[in-house]
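We were asked to recover a plausible sequence for a given structure. The inputs and outputs are reproduced exactly as logged, with field labels preserved.

PROBLEM: sequence recovery
POSITIONS: 370
GIVEN STRUCTURE:
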């Protein structure tokens, strides 16, 4: 038997094995998918990724299970009609469009900072897109892998304007509201200890509880990612009476998290996010994506949209995967503007999240599809 025939039979055997595993898993109505929680190693030909049990589970149930924040304006929250909105929510929808062909084929699973990683490890969600910082401990300490960075943030302090503060270094003896289960408390400890400043941590179980405690004046300052502070300020009675101090005390690279060991699924999440970033760089928008697919001469655009090459099929997807994602939610810039930027209540500047070749330049950089 020739090498190509042998390779074909091996691939078919791998697909059958994974399909059997999916068929033996729990029903769609249960809280976890066994086939998604434990990646299966199968034989593949050289250069191919092992078939993804997570992808098999998603296609079987017909939807993506996406872990998101329990409620953070701009990133993940429900509107007055109960519809999920936000920056992270749109990335979940883009991923669903790439995988299933439908941006609405998503079940959003609200998770706290403390239970988010366990929910992912247990298979209750396929991907965690919940303003989670990429740190060494998280990346090397368990069954988790980061698939990329979609927002560059940093931790700061929200205080009342009446305190007339110019710097966090003036918070000597202050009560600082913090959320448990996050890196916030550790960053605050590092900041004040290195400067010999006394403070008292007021640790609450959720971001919402920390924000409410600050609103009740149970603490003098609220410390979290600057984007979360901007969101919190919009919910306070008179937002003009609260200011975010200029100090940024940490680097918080936020992005999607997946289970370790499922290389194909990690690649799908990484390259779907990257496709939305690259689309902005190449001028491909939600409004013009179909015209670009039909008329573009730029080889970069043609490869991105599946007109040339077979990049989607390498990941077990349609070659239109990126086109579907862009058509579903728009490019990175469109997602940013409507959720966090000038079209939103937060009105955040792009800052570090501007394109690398923007004016001014940022850190958002599209990897080449080729």
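RECOVERED SEQUENCE:
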């Amino acid at each position: 038997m020739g090498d190509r025939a042998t390779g074909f039979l091996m691939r078919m055997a791998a697909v059958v094995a994974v399909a059997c595993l999916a068929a033996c898993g729990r029903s769609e109505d249960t809280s976890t998918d066994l086939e998604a929680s434990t990646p299966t190693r199968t034989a593949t030909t050289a250069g191919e990724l092992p078939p993804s049990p997570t992808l098999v589970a998603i296609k079987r149930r017909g939807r993506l299970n996406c872990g998101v924040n329990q409620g953070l304006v701009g990133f993940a929250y429900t509107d007055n009609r109960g519809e999920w909105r936000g920056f992270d929510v749109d990335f979940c929808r883009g991923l669903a469009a790439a995988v299933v062909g439908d941006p609405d084929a998503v079940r959003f699973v609200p998770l706290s900072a403390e239970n988010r990683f366990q929910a992912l490890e247990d298979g209750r969600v396929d991907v965690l897109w919940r303003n989670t910082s990429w740190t060494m401990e998280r990346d090397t300490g368990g069954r988790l892998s980061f698939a990329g960075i979609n927002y560059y943030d940093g931790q700061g302090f929200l205080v009342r304007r009446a305190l007339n503060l110019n710097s966090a270094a003036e918070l000597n003896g202050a009560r600082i509201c913090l959320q448990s289960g996050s890196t916030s408390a550790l960053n605050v400890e590092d900041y004040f200890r290195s400067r010999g400043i006394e403070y008292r941590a007021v640790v609450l179980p959720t971001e919402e509880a920390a924000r409410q405690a600050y609103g009740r004046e149970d603490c003098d300052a609220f410390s979290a990612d600057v984007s979360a502070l901007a969101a919190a300020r919009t919910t306070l009675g008179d937002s003009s009476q609260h200011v975010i101090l200029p100090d940024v005390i940490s680097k918080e690279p936020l992005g999607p998290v997946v289970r370790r060991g499922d290389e194909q699924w990690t690649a799908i999440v990484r390259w779907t996010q990257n496709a939305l970033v690259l689309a902005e760089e190449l001028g491909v928008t939600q409004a013009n994506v179909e015209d670009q697919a039909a008329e573009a001469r730029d080889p970069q655009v043609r490869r991105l949209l599946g007109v040339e090459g077979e990049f989607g099929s390498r990941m077990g997807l349609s070659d239109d995967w990126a086109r579907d994602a862009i058509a579903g939610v728009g490019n990175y810039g469109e997602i940013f503007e409507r959720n966090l930027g000038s079209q939103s209540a937060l009105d955040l500047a792009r800052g570090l999240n501007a394109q690398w070749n923007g004016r001014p330049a940022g850190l958002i950089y599209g990897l080449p599809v080729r």
